[in-house]
Amino acid sequence: LEEAAKLSDAANIIIDEQGSTIYLADKGMSLDVGAVAKGYATELVARELETAGFVSGAISAGGNVRTIGKPL
Description:
The protein is α+β, with helices and mostly antiparallel strands.
């Protein structure tokens, strides 16, 4: 855990907004954006269901939960 903690310093994440890039200053660092993609996909499904006329429901996508409408 101590070794992993050394690789989780947000100060070592350099964001270049103009270039639309992110640089990880420590060679051992990695960035997992899988949760972002899963959340985005879940949101797209919710919008499609609402467009199709669904007024209430819940979407469970591998740990992501998105609700539609109000509880019944």
